[in-house]
Amino acid sequence: MNSVILRLGLVTLLLVMSSAVMAKRVPSPDRDLDDDHIAFVNQQNAGKPGAWFARKNFHRGHTDTQKRAMLGARFPTAAEAASLPVRKQQARTRAVLPATFDARTQWPSCTIIADIRNQGQCGSCWANVGASVISDRNCIASPNKNVNFKASVADIMNCNSYGQGCGGGYVHTPFMMWATTGQNAGVVSGGEAGSNSGCKPYTGVDAVCSANCSNTAYTFLDPTDKHYGSSWYYLRLNNVAAETPTSQAEIDAIRTEIMTYGSISAGFSAYRDIYSYASGVYTRTTVPTNDLLGGHALTIIGWGTEGGVDYWLAKNSWGTNWGAAGLIKFRRGINHCGIESQMAAGLPLPRTYGYDRCDALFCSTRANGNYYVAQCSKNYCSCSGGVGTWVGCAAGSFVDKTTNQCVAQSATFCPSVSVGVMPPQPAWPAVPQEQVDMCNQVNCDARGTKATYFPLGRCSPYWCYCYNKEVPTRREVVTCGPGQFFDFRSEVNACADMRTIPGCY
Questions:
Q1: Global pTM?
Q2: What are phi and psi of 59, to 5 degrees?
Q3: Which of 125, 393, 444, 464 is catalytic?
Q4: pLDDT score at 40
Q5: Is the pLDDT of residue 464 over 70?
Q6: Which of 73, 131, 330, 468 yields a CA-CA distance of 20 to 30 A from 372?
Q7: Is 290 a residue of the active site?
Q8: Domain Chitin-binding type-2 spans what residues (predicted)?
Q9: What's the 3-state SS for 73-102?
Q10: Active site residue 59
Q11: Nearest of 135, 131, 102, 106 to residue 118 by alpha carbon
């Protein structure tokens, strides 16, 4: 009898000890950033192909409220999505697409691509990611690929037409603001919080939209600092929660987009364990405590494969102390956490750096003085009494936008720019391939049998002409003359002087 009681006692003791061990190994939702949680995740992932590992990225006691405040990506409803543009990129053959790609090394002069932002306790991931993509693509599209303009998150947050800010926003909102007409169209410059850099530095709080720079030390007018896009679109637009499988053709098209134009924005479902990401290829941990906390967004800058597992290389907006110095490798090709469901981007409005407008219309609303076109451009506009005069820098000198004067090239000032003088006004270049691709996707037949035409982006010299009487319908990209954009207002619907088109000058 005593031996039976003893055995029952030992069994009970073992069960209690086992429960205690399990209670310690499986973290509670309130303790997901402590040592037990990190050890548990690392134990779960140890030995798995392309495994990821966790570490303590934030302070102990980081609450769920604080975690959710660092998210902010919203996803359009099915009804909203029906009216949003989706662009299908022509995929390159797999033989052409490299196994590994990193935009930072592809365009090394665009140092802005390596920039990691920090949104703080504000649900502005959507705006931070959008600003990163705009900055990256603006540089990649510049002639010398060295225009490291840093788009302002504060401007996007406070001046977008949806009124979205720290409470969250759509991943397409920054691009729509960048590339559409209206009073607040375009994006100005702005550095990180406390940086006193650019026109509108980040503050991490919502504010009223202003046409003036919030940084009083920044000497350039808001309109002079504006950068614009020519078009915006989704690459893929599906329900994030459904995690609809992504085909290989779609993955290749997304990679082609990144390889051709630069980084893209991607929204996804963020689970509790992503806050502890340190290295490896992130795959959601399958434990009961790994709750869905909300939507988040990343800037995808490349791809690769690790341990046989494909990944997207992406920038987060939680500072450099999180993850791999602010970066994450996110599982690619299976729409993990919906990462491939809602991807958005836009194209920059072509800027002829080193030659822009300088006339009475430009100077009539500006004080006497010099106005730069871009850092390291070869000329600046001198306004005097409402009259504009181009001033060209001598050979070997370029414009310093901090002084609006010509400065000699050196190892620290515009070192990679080709030496030269102010060029003559150029004619429009050959039609870019992206405009041809956009024209090929126009639904010409929707306008009936008459010949029709469609503008290819805001403030663009290109438009698509549909020969609807021909079978099949033939399309052709037509280019306006120098100094002209296609004015898509119904009363015009033709090429016109860019200065007469609202929002384009």
A1: 0.68
A2: -70, 155
A3: 125
A4: 82
A5: yes
A6: 131
A7: no
A8: 360-416
A9: EECCCHHHHCCCCECCCCCCCCCCCCCCEE
A10: no
A11: 131
